[in-house]
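Hi everyone, sorry if this is the wrong subforum. Our group has a chain we'd like a structural model of before ordering constructs, and none of us has done structure prediction before. Sequence below.
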Amino acid sequence: MPLALYDVPAPAKLNLFLHVVGKRPDGYHLLQSIFALIDWADTLHFERRSDGQLARHDGDNAAAALPADDLCLRAARLLQTESGCGLGADIHLEKRLPAGAGMGGGSSDAASTLLALNRLWGLNWPRSRLLALGLKLGADVPFFIGGRNAFVEGIGEILHPITLPPLGFAVLKPPTGISTQQIFSSPLLARSKSVAIVAGFPAHNSSEDKNETSSATASSSQSVLSASQAADVVRLDAQGVALLANGFGRNDLQKPAEASCPEVVQALQLLEERFGNSRMTGSGSAVFARVDTAAGGKDGVSDLPTGWVAKMCRSLDVHPLCGWAED
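Answer:
Right subforum, don't worry. Here is the predicted structure as tokens:
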């Protein structure tokens, strides 16, 4: 077992589209989305302790103070409890991703913590066991443990890995964060009138309660809806993947976010004027625009208001820690 693991990345994600297609009896909304990994990331360092204690140490570059009991510590404590491991860890977190952005920063930190401590403590749990553990921490955590870009269903736990073409993004985050709970409780949140069907993946009934974590690979089965249901059908070929990656669908959370945060509207307009397209990711408040990867990040967003953050990003083929757990 290693004594320490340094420079462990925790990359962000963007929702290339996000459709709300139902609601479970427990109040959780059912979604469909493409989650794409990008090269904007937090960095963590882990040092093994023999006394069983868990401690987080924050870098001085964080834009805001983190909660005393954040997802990193909750992930470490959960893995320690479930595994019965008597070891502990010092967790050093260099926070670069903005909070309240809809980019999954906290969930990614938690996933990287589970993957790193699984190795640091010599547990050698398979990915399936970590996926189930991650779902207890949050709906986005399994995606980052899964390690691949994915067409996502359920509350975020049903993962269909896909291969995306190289993509470039301009990502812009205003200083105001948005509460996810606030967005999902908004009267402006509307359920999509159609569901996206990706041919080649098993069909999932979005009205059913999804409690199991599934990391499904592409199969030969064709998703089928009843004649009364409208659907946006995307076939899993080169043309279909390009459609999913380049402007398919919408973000159903964007309208309530715009109503509660005028800066989201401002950010969307700024990117629309600069790049000809814009969309919010997750529940906001970060927004993004698709850009030509050949630009090499030279045409970034400049002259921003005080407190705004922007970065030219590229998509990742796989999570940097994809090989840290056995399938």
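For your construct planning: Residues 105-120 form the longest helix (16 residues). The mean pLDDT is 83.
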